Amino acid sequence: MWLQEFDGLEGQPPDPRVWSHDLGGGGWGDGQQQVYTDDPANVALDGAGNLRITARREPDGTITSARLTTRDGFATRFGRVEARIKVPGGRATWPAFWMLGTDIDDVGWPACGEIDVMEHVGADSRRAHGTLHGPGYSGLAGGVGRAIDAGTDLSDDFHDYAVAWDESGITWLLDDREQHRLTPSDVPGPWPFDHEFFLLINLAIGGDWPGHAADEPELPAVLLVDRIRVDDLAQTSARQG
């Protein structure tokens, strides 16, 4: 088992042995508005056992936020990958918990593979999205996945977002309830999900998501992460049984 619980004093950074920062702006490929920083005002522990990522408007009008990655600190091949998250809700918010193949520098994206454990758009408060991106099925209009209707506003409380990932396919779960599953026969191209992946978590603002609210974003917006856990699937099954 690998576990991050984000205990510590308010304002401290998450463990730098595990987490690094993706920095900068430029839209990130789909018209997002934020600039990612490593400023504690954008990303820090909240002193109550959570990681807090805050999107905020700076005095000069720039929107800043944060994107964390375990690219240099942790990767996994298969297992149950889960995060307990409270999404911010509100217009134009776009939080995500996701994974990229560690061979991204060698083969590029989407050949490395992308597993979106959870994406949430604030204007569509009841639904979380679980998606795969690979060669021939990538981008906002091309990924293969499904929207999960939770039946409640996901920004009202913490929820557990997970995938159970093995050689045969990937299953998405919301609060331990299986939502959908994809296997190599379900995608219109190669299946690049049989090697190591690292984790990412971020809070984007705006962007070109279909149907995304074009209104002025409601800021500040806060994404809270209570824990992130990766288990061997055999251990997970034994624990649940």
Automatic annotation (TrEMBL):
UniProt cross-references to PROSITE patterns, sorted A to Z: GH16_2
Organism, as annotated: Nocardioides renjunii
Signal peptide stretch: none
Family label: Belongs to the glycosyl hydrolase 16 family.
UniProt keyword annotations, A-Z: Hydrolase
Protein's UniProt keywords contain rRNA-binding: no
SUPFAM superfamilies attached to this UniProt entry: Concanavalin A-like lectins/glucanases
Keyword Hydrolase listed: yes
GH16 domain sequence ranges: 7-236
Name of the protein in its database record: Glycoside hydrolase family 16 protein
GO molecular function, one term: hydrolase activity
